Amino acid sequence: MTCLLALINRMVCKDSFDDEDIQLLDNLVKKYLQIVEEHLPQLKNKVKTHLLTHLTDEISRHGPPLGYSEDVFEKRHGVIRAKLFNQENQLARSRDTAILFGKSCVFLHVLMGGFFQTSDAIWTQSTKSVQELAQRKEMIDFLGHLSTKDPNYESHMPVLLMPIRCNNKKAILQELSSFHPQCLLLQGLVDLGTPSPTVDGKMITYQGCRSQDGSVIKEGMSLAYMNRENEVEIGLFKRGYLILLENQRKSLITVEKGHIQTTSFLGCPIVHLKNETDVVPLHRVLSYVPLVHHCAHSHCTIREGRTTIRVEQEDKDVYKRFVVHNMNHAIRVYVVNVFSLKCPSEFPFSDLKTCSKKL
């Protein structure tokens, strides 16, 4: 039931629908309602369960739900709350807040290219440079717009992030001969098309990178990349390296290679990690892929005790149940969390239609 709801949620968050998508969503909703009827009939009294029966009709009639989401308006709650408390006299908070909020909406209207009347009774728009400023990702996030796609931001090539620095904050420069194993380095330089690969040079080590889709990937995080046969594979990010040759600068990363299996668990593809290291040119890093440890297969245990959790950007020591992962295996087993909204659907192993058929 949880898996079906997660797939329905991913489908609803799509920005476009065709007839096949609507039919798939309708089948998922019907399967979910059937499970509710058989196992939890009390959920039929919930309003949201009833609204699911109209979901595909609403999408066919009005388009993708992202087009009429409440998230944009809920982002304005912080603006209103700030205006409630940032007033001088606090005597007419309702009136003052309404006036300030109205001015904020007018500012948003003008900034996005809406027409306004000048003191000369002439209707005009903001300049092109102002409208271009409003389309920057930082402004879109601040103003609470639904569309956060910045074509300029998305067109950036992958880059290495967070270089390892010494005490004076300068990036540590190492000899290329210190790269181990050197056979991987030479293979990476061959993959990059270096005419005469050599270990005579310098390198800077990095702790993260940005992928083609803009995802920030740090040490230990999972990613999708294109291998030498132009097939999509999954791995764990280990380190990034900026290779400084005589007249060239090359970017590589090392990954712990994953092996995608033909089997699945609850519709999620299974991935085996065997402590195999591979080297990948940075421009072949595609995106972040959410991996979850396969606890059922690895016989992980649940314990009670004190553990540290992150609450509102603070670490707190609490007493609760937590999972102790069993990593004492030659092959570590993970599953691709296809139900996560961060899981890209353009890859064969995470395609929504394929995963829904395996449930």
Q: Could you walk me through the main structural features you see in this protein, from its secondary elements to its overall organization?
A:
By secondary structure, the chain is an alpha+beta fold. Helices cover 32% and strands 30% of the residues. The strands form three sheets. Strands 3, 4, 5, 6, 7, 8, 9, 10, 11, 12 and 15 form an eleven-stranded antiparallel sheet that branches. Strands 1-2 form a two-stranded antiparallel sheet. Helix 2 runs antiparallel to helix 4. The chain is globular, with a radius of gyration of 26 Å.
Summary keywords:
alpha+beta; two-stranded antiparallel ribbon
What class would the helix/strand composition place it in?
Answer: alpha+beta
Gross geometry = globular
In N-to-C order, the SSE pattern is HHHHHHHEEHHHEEHEEEEEEEEHEEEH
How many strands in all?
A: 15
Query: What is the rounded distance between the termini?
Result: 10 Å
The number of helical elements comes to 13
Q: Beta-strand percentage? A: 25-35%
Helix content: 25-40%
Main sheet attributes: strand count, strand direction, barrel closure: 11 strands, antiparallel
Determine Rg (CA atoms, Å).
Answer: 26 Å
- The average pLDDT value, as a whole number, equals 82
Short description:
This protein has 359 residues and is of the alpha+beta class.
Break the fold down into its secondary structure elements and pairings:
Blueprint: H1 2-12, H2 19-39, H3 47-52, H4 55-62, H5 71-74, H6 77-85, H7 93-111, E1 116-117, E2 123-124, H8 128-134, H9 137-143, H10 151-154, E3 159-163, E4 173-175, H11 182-191, E5 202-210, E6 216-218, E7 222-226, E8 232-244, E9 249-265, E10 268-281, E11 285-288, E12 291-293, H12 295-298, E13 301-311, E14 314-324, E15 332-336, H13 352-357
Antiparallel strand pairs: 1-2, 3-5, 4-5, 5-6, 5-8, 7-8, 7-11, 8-9, 9-10, 10-15, 12-15, 13-14
Helix pairs in contact: 1-2, 2-4, 6-7
